[in-house]
Amino acid sequence: MRVIDLADLPHRPIEAHGSRGFSVGAFGLGADTHLVAVSLAPGGVIGRHPAVGRQLLVVLAGDAEVSGSDGTPQLLAPGQAAVWEPGEHHETRSARGLSAMIVEGDLDIGAPGEQVDPGDV
Fold first, then answer.
1. Measured between alpha carbons, how far is residue 53 from residues 15, 50, 107 in Å?
2. Rounded to an integer, what distance in angstroms lies between the CA atom of residue 121 and that of residue 118?
3. Nearest alpha carbon to residue 29 among 104, 117, 107
4. Looking at domain 8-102, which of 2.60.120.10, 2.30.30.40, 2.102.10.10, 3.30.530.20 is its CATH number?
5. What is the pTM of this model?
């Protein structure tokens, strides 16, 4: 077993699409899926851009104001997640700062209450 402290990952700042106060640290890369730790400073923004593949943002700490293709903002708290479909334009903002995990790529993500993994048979 290995323990990974997301705070210890090397992060790089991202300024594309008008982003500010945004940095990422990759800790899982595959041919079809990327797993990254995300930090947004207070008042930070991940600028509006299209999702390369299906994308899941899971809020770990702080707050997130997310929007999808229609631009309608929704607030997320720790333990909540947003899913964007391939090509969907989206944006994330944080008033107080954000620590999150993003998984993007070839993912099956169920609807609330839907069982994705049937377990051992």
1. 20, 9, 8
2. 8
3. 104
4. 2.60.120.10
5. 0.85
Residue 3, both tokens: 């323990």
What residue has token string 């943002």? 57
One-letter amino acid identity for 84?
W
Residue that has been written with the tokens 């947004």 in this structure? 40
70 φ, ψ to 5°? Answer: -85, -5
Is residue 104 a contact partner of residue 34, using CB atoms and an 8 Å limit?
yes
Tell me the per-residue pLDDT of 61-95, one tens digit each, with 9 for 90 and over.
Answer: 999 999 999 999 999 999 999 999 999 999 999 99
As given in the structure block, the two tokens for residue 69 are 């293709």
Provide the pLDDT for residue 51: 93
- Confidence class for position 17, pLDDT limits 50, 70, 90: very high
| Joined tokens for residue 96 | 């107080």
